[in-house]
Design a protein that fits this description.
By secondary structure, the chain is mainly beta.
Length: 635
């Protein structure tokens, strides 16, 4: 793709071209003096042009190479030459921010560059880099406290001494001289910006309105116009007290792209979960509320539990390869993964059922996991042209599969630097356009599908998350207040809560009892105040809010709901009514389905808030516990 850099300059496939319609030929290619473009292949980023750097009529075009170095194409005395400026030691450059040159400044020629680790450096342009070795060329301005600067994104100069940079968490930050900017938001330029020894650059954070996705929804009618004018906060020098997060200086930590093993003891975490775990996490999938759901058996057969004319029966869906798990549902189509890791769609076409192999499509990938849930119950789904489902690949990368209007398309969203992805915690349930994931190192990350940026959330080094999916809880879609619920590595319940007053906070709920640890993945949740979990003792536990206080309720297992005089069922050695650690699914707004250890299913229904009762046991084709059921087959 041809990228226009500046007047008459273009980039194509890593090479620099110049276009001048007054010459013949009009196109000229700028070749490196050694004749090799391999080492100095140019990156497709914004370039900066500086005039009169070494003479009245000199022109300098500053570009970045694909290996993250600063390089200059200079014309002086009608001759072109390449000048390599390099990069700060240990840093790879990803963008350039052009600024107006200040003749009153003691160092008038500067560029600001962003590194792959989220740092901002100021480069004092040297007229003759080989001669000016004693001059400090790279000045490190770091990044704001507890936020990295977005990589690959250029900043914007407001005025001399003031620049705005996007952060990887959606906010903006201002890098400005300590005597200018920040709270002093005047649009008028200062009388003089001549640097003095007491004046230095500092950071100020501009809190973006906390709405869906932190992107373009700030001023929508649904979110409310007041989101556009909610506050800015000046944070310079010292550790901030921000409404975004409460942090501890000693627990400040960032990942660097160069760090393949950033945390001690993470060597064992970079292992993709085995198939048994995948099958347990995605054995059940809701298709239609109170009408249909799917079950994947231990021997990789897929069944649908279907209600037709008030009659429930099991429908078997045949496929040439075994099915490992059901990883998504969109617009009546079921997304499953077979034993080879291929992503398949099961859908109805007219009166027939068909299979589509998505992995066989262009740029198709093998996957091992998908999003835990498929939207909120009781809300009619609204199709959007950007609708997509996210999956985890076999090598721990995040994959985006566009499904809107059946224009199927794969996109590799990669993974956080140096960390493979274990599972998806939430896809756009807690925040629009945001996918939360857990890394193989037990840390929480987010991917913004609009800006395509990864961000690592603050987390105590002592809090290690399990590699299981989570669930999002929101009391109302009109409010950004809510929580992500996950399990810790030691089997306790963990909440990551957001509120506009307190920002982000981690809350450790722990296990329901000292003799029980939580197993499987948390969820589902109901009403923004009830969350189901499974204990190691085979009981279901409910975590619910009662007058603002979190409480535990032991819901047991379905055997307790039946008359214990049924001796034939009691002594059946194939029957075990305790609950397995298979991730349950919601069946309606007041119903949830669990898998029992004997392969049958148990349904719970809500009596009142905080009070649920077992309502029935559903026999399945895969259970050896004798139960009557109807079955049919679909080819």
């Amino acid at each position: 793709m041809l990228l226009r850099l500046d007047r008459g300059f273009f980039l194509l496939l890593g090479d620099l071209y110049e276009y001048d319609p007054t010459t013949k030929p009009p196109w000229k290619k700028h070749i490196h003096q050694q004749g090799s473009v391999g080492e100095y292949s140019l990156a497709s980023f914004k370039a900066c042009i500086v005039h009169s750097l070494i003479g009245a009529h000199s022109v300098s075009l500053f570009l970045l190479t694909k290996n993250g170095e600063l390089i200059e194409r200079r014309m002086h005395q009608r001759k072109w030459k390449w000048v390599v400026h390099g990069n700060p030691k240990g840093h790879q450059l990803t963008s350039i921010t052009c600024i107006s040159q200040d003749e009153a400044n003691e160092n008038p020629n500067s560029l600001f560059v962003t590194t792959s680790a989220g740092f901002v450096f100021e480069y004092h342009i040297q007229k003759y880099p080989d001669r000016d070795l004693e001059v400090i060329k790279w000045q490190n301005h770091n990044h704001p406290p507890y936020a990295k600067v977005a990589t690959g994104k250029s900043g914007l100069q407001l005025q001399l001494g003031r620049m705005i940079f996007p952060l990887d968490d959606g906010r903006l930050a201002e890098l400005h001289l300590s005597s200018l900017g920040g709270e002093t938001l005047s649009p008028y330029p200062p009388i003089s910006t001549r640097r003095k020894s007491s004046i230095k650059y500092v950071w100020s954070l501009l809190d973006a309105p906390e709405t869906e996705g932190w992107n373009a929804e700030y001023c929508t009618e649904q979110s409310g116009p007041t989101n556009c004018i909610l506050g800015t906060k000046d944070e310079t020098g010292e550790i901030p007290i921000s409404r975004w997060r409460k942090d501890s200086k000693t627990q400040h930590y960032y990942l660097s792209p160069a760090d393949s093993n950033p945390n001690p003891g993470d060597q064992d975490y970079n292992v993709i979960p085995d198939k048994w775990d995948i099958k347990k996490l995605f054995r059940l999938r809701l298709m239609q509320e109170e009408k249909s759901f799917f079950l994947i058996t231990e021997n990789n057969v897929i069944f649908e539990y279907l209600n037709t004319e008030n009659t429930w029966f099991w429908l078997r869906h045949e496929h040439s390869t075994g099915i490992e798990g059901a990883v998504g549902n969109y617009n009546g189509s079921l997304f499953v993964v077979d034993e080879d890791g291929s992503l398949l769609i099961r859908e109805r076409s007219s009166s027939d059922l068909t299979w589509i192999n998505c992995t066989a499509l262009r740029r198709g990938k093998q996957v091992i996991a998908g999003p835990p849930w498929d939207g909120a119950l009781g809300q009619a789904p609204r199709a959007k042209p950007e609708d997509a489902i996210f999956f985890v690949s076999k090598n721990g990368r995040l994959l985006q599969f566009t499904v809107a209007l059946r224009k199927f398309k794969w996109k590799d969203c990669r993974n956080p630097p140096g960390v493979k992805i274990a599972s998806i915690v939430d896809q756009e349930g807690f925040r629009g356009n945001i996918v939360f994931v857990v890394g193989q190192n037990g840390r929480l990350f987010q991917y913004n599908k609009v800006t395509e940026l990864w961000h690592q959330h603050y987390q105590s080094q002592h809090l290690v998350l399990s590699r299981l999916p989570g669930t999002a809880m929101r009391s109302s879609m009109a409010s950004s207040k809510g929580s992500l619920f996950m399990l810790s590595e030691d089997g306790g319940l963990v909440e990551y809560k957001w509120s506009s007053m307190e920002g982000w906070n981690w809350i450790e709920h722990g296990p329901p009892d000292t003799t029980v640890v939580l197993v499987g993945a948390p969820g589902p949740c109901f009403g923004g105040n009830e969350l189901f979990l499974i204990g190691s003792d085979g009981n279901v536990y409910l975590r619910y809010l009662d007058r603002g206080e979190w409480k535990w309720r032991d819901c047991g297992f379905p055997y307790t709901a039946y008359d214990e005089t049924d001796e034939e069922d009691v002594i059946d050695r194939n029957c075990d009514p305790k609950v397995s650690n298979t991730r349950p699914i919601p069946f309606s707004e007041d119903s949830v389905i669990f898998e029992l250890r004997d392969g049958r299913l148990g349904e719970m229904r809500q009596v009142e808030v905080g009070n649920w009762m077992w309502s029935r046991i559903i026999g399945t084709p895969s259970s050896l516990c004798v139960t009557n059921f109807w079955a049919s087959w679909a080819m």
